[in-house]
Amino acid sequence: MAKAPLKLRAKEPADDEAITSPDAESADAPNSPEVRTPNIPERQVQKRTTEAGRFWLQIDRQTKSSYETAEQAATAGMAIKKNFSMVQVAVYDRKEGSNTILELPV
């Protein structure tokens, strides 16, 4: 069953705010110094940095570090797995696209 869209009340101006029409502001905008907008810095965009190594160490499906060889990644992963056995530790090979989950020896 389709629901009716929510109808939100329009924001009422506070007592101390002056009610002005948009037409009045636009007429005075080019010549009025008080209507000028302040210098607002541009929004900074965060870019994801790619890991340099071929083998990525992933803890609970989150990439934590990268290594040049699979042995280095597996060694670091086993050290983490020994201390925190409840987390999933995996080594991801970027080139082949394969994921190897590390398990503690029984």
Protein architecture, described:
This protein has 106 residues and is an alpha+beta fold. The protein has a domain at 55-102. It is built from 2 helices and 4 strands. It has helices at residues 22-28, 70-83; strands at 55-59, 62-67, 89-93, 98-102. The chain is elongated, with a radius of gyration of 29 Å.
Structural descriptors:
106 residues, alpha+beta, four-stranded antiparallel sheet, 4 strands
Q: Give the low-confidence spans.
A: none
Helix/strand order, N-terminal first: HEEHEE
Strand content: 15-25%
State the helix count: 2
Helical coverage, percent range: 10-25%
Q: Kindly provide the radius of gyration, computed on alpha-carbon positions and rounded to a whole number of angstroms.
A: 29 Å
Broad structural category: alpha+beta
Please tell me what the overall shape is. Answer: elongated
Give a short synopsis of this structure.
This protein is α+β, with helices and mostly antiparallel strands and 106 residues long. It contains 2 helices and 4 strands, in the order H-E-E-H-E-E. The mean pLDDT is 81.
Summarize the helices and strands and which ones pair or pack.
Elements: H1 22-28, E1 55-59, E2 62-67, H2 70-83, E3 89-93, E4 98-102
Antiparallel strand pairs: 1-2, 1-3, 3-4
